[in-house]
Amino acid sequence: MERPQGCELLAFEGEIALIIGRPAHRVQPEDAWSYVGGVTAANDLGIYDYRAQDKGSNTRSKSRDGYTPLGPDVIDASLVDPHNLRIRTWVNGHIAQEAITDEEEMIFPLSQFVADLSQHMTLEPGDVILTGTPAGSTVIFPGDTVEVEVDCPTVEGCPTSGKLSTTIVEGPGNFNASVGMLPSIDDKQREDAYGDRASAGLPEEDDLSSMDPELRALLEKVPTAGLSAQLRNKGLNQVHIEGVKSNKPGTHMVGVATTLRFLPCREDLFPALGGGYNAQKKAFDGLKEGQILVIEARNDPGSGTLGDVLALRAANLKAAGIVTDGGIRDFTPVTEVDIPVFGRTAHPAVLGRKHLPYDTDIAIGCGNTTVFPGDILVGDDDGVIVIPRALAWEVAIAAAKKEIQDEWVAERVKEGHPVDGLFPPTGEWKKAYADYLDNHPELMAALPTPPEAK
């Protein structure tokens, strides 16, 4: 089997192939297996270099001459249990895939493939259905030999397809750019082909859903007012989510942003985008521990953007909070849920009165502020502030140092000193504060060290 020159990512997929034995049209799952005449092995080879061009069709990536070989023998389907077929794949003699078609390993039973497809077309004798590949599919190279076998070890004699053997060779490319698209790959295709980034030799991506625990602990001690001042010192003024307040006074919320965007509601679009398992529900179900869901509702408080059930879901997933520039439905029950929610106001109407849930994990505007997934959010009684991830450590350390100074200044004011020259410390007061730090080195020593400085 050829891997054409100019291509890098040829991958194998050992699969069980079902061969239809008699016409099947709108058959029921309980009867579907009787329409299968035989079972054999398949190698669903594919070139990932063409996946982007194929846009899901797999026409170029899986349709080259000789691809998807079947055989070598066919097992009589009437002799085997469709829930106990075994598939194994070897690469150069080493086992790469092994699975059984029982309920634990199959997403759908084999009979459901037949029943489902027969709803949409008449399956004719000789039609072949490939049923998916187990874990372990990866990239192969010229010189590699792949073997796939399907058998049924629970049946006497262990009926088998025999080993389907495929040896990979380097073939000509001969791609003509004037006729069609050329093969191309990126790191996403490499990751998909190999199964993970490490196997593809790629560095680990930053996990934008998490935060360094030391950074989180530090931000939990720093007020938004101090963070705002430090961001302003760096020229960032448009970092406040305006018009929102906490439903739990005294809350100090820290987390990583994930986002949900609402569009203005249009009645003809709501059945398709607003009903069922829509973007709003997906956003709440997809929350991870420590994340804050930020909702763009265009500063329109004219309906709820969440209620008590969704707040409960976020709390159960250990999300750090919810921020919306729209309304909050079920306001009192939401307040009783163990999660801080920052919003504009209470409103009894469901979201369909004003909003259409549209997209998640994209850049949004919330309270006249741009929020990207992965941004760091801190909220307290003064509001919610957005910290660019790349600046989080620097800003947090600076704000923490300023808090130490402000606490020292507050003690001097309590002693009766005027604020002139003291807030902020200048002249003799500046020297007095420096002496205070010299006498209390543990204050600065207690601050964490950013990872890049360790």
UniProtKB/TrEMBL annotation:
Coiled coil: none annotated. CDD domains: RraA_family. Pfam families: FAA_hydrolase (PF01557), RraA-like (PF03737). It comes from the Bacteria. Keywords: Magnesium, Metal-binding. Residues 3-159 form the Fumarylacetoacetase-like C-terminal domain. GO terms for molecular function: catalytic activity; metal ion binding. Its cofactor is Mg(2+). InterPro entries: Fumarylacetoacetase-like_C (IPR011234), Fumarylacetoacetase_C_sf (IPR036663), RraA/RraA-like (IPR005493), RraA/RraA-like_sf (IPR036704). Mg(2+) binds at residue 330. Substrate binds at residues 307-310, 329. Transmembrane segments: none annotated. The keyword RNA-binding does not apply. This is Fumarylacetoacetase-like C-terminal domain-containing protein. The lineage of its organism: Bacteria, Bacillati, Actinomycetota, Actinomycetes, Mycobacteriales.
